[in-house]
Amino acid sequence: MTTSVTLVRRIRAHPETVFEAMTTPEGIGHWWGPDAGPVLLAETDVRVGGAFRVRFQMLDGTEHESFGTYLEVDPPHRLIMSWQWVDEPDLDMRIEIALRAIAEGTELTFTHARLPDEEMRISHEAGWNGALDKLELYFLPPKGLGHDPA
Length: 150
Prior knowledge:
Helix content: 10-25%
Number of strands: 7
Strand content: over 45%
Strand order of the largest sheet: 1-7-6-5-4-3-2
Largest sheet: 7 strands, antiparallel
């Protein structure tokens, strides 16, 4: 039985800007990975049939690398890609990202599908929540700037 994780976030940036952060090596470097560890490698060829590869290091020093192929590319609305871990290449998973303009910026719906079991679903849910937390923070204005809500 396969399972999936779907996460919905509101990002304070236009869909075009969020799409760029999700598909360019520079953008990926700001948010990919579940904790504050660095992205070590990000390669993207954002077109149907194009490939991506991302390697990141976690704060505990472990490195993880994933790769896949873009299956659907509809900027700035939708992105679907295959997903595999380098150390588990037999697991053929899928990522689906939908971006929708809202008053505050973008509503992002992120789905990681075809996870093989509940343990992996829980692990990926935690990992993607950490990464999407970083994506949200990336688009927040620095403290001390912006409007005073009072």
